Amino acid sequence: MNPTIEQLKGGLIVSCQAYTGEPLRHPETMAQMARAAELGGAVAIRCQGLSDIAAIKGRVEIPVIGLWKEGHDGVYITPTLRHAIACVNAGADVVALDATDRPRPDGRTFEQTVSELREACDTLVMADCATIEDIRRSVAAGCDLVSTTLSHGSNAIDCGMADGPDLPLLRQAVAEFPDVPVVCEGRVHTPADAAAALSAGAFAVVAGTAITHPTSITSWFVAAL
Fold first, then answer.
1. What is the rounded CA–CA span in Å between residue 225 and residue 223?
2. What angle (nearest 5°) sits at the alpha carbon of residue 45, between those of residues 44 and 47?
3. What is the mean pLDDT of residues 4-14?
4. How many domains are contained in the chain?
5. How many CA atoms are closer than 13 Å to the CA of 12, on its beta-carbon side?
6. Enclosing domain of residue 32
């Protein structure tokens, strides 16, 4: 197994992302957030946008999983080969791609994107999946990590606490591909959620909103009151 991937095993990946119009939307702020997560024990940082990738890569010593979100509908997580190569050039150790079979802006398939990305760059690839079919496609394409990122849909910000992580999909993926690093991502809102995902066979667990999105966290408390 690649040493960078091995470094993630059994650990917490923290997603540090803020969006246009949000108070924390600044690369330096995201870099500070990432460094704080590293000090807390995160094994990697997941982040979006070229400026954030570059800023965070310069601040932390743990691996950086980079992506570039463009648009809001369809495939918008690193939607084209151009976006993926740009993430590598910005400093990402791993590039995250939407692994669904939906049409992509540049007309390439997911498989073509992965193949051409590997030809162009020496990089690791994380597949953001919605279904077991996506996971099967990603394993066949030779992705280094597969993740349940999109199993709850593809909203830019997940503000609700309902449902928790998709453990059924996680368990199915782990059962089918016991030798593939399967990452649990999506609605991991509590330490108990993270522990449950690891117990269900996750190679690593991603938490974002519950750690790095104070607007959502505040709204959960307000709703409870």
1. 5
2. 155
3. 98
4. 1
5. 23
6. 3-224
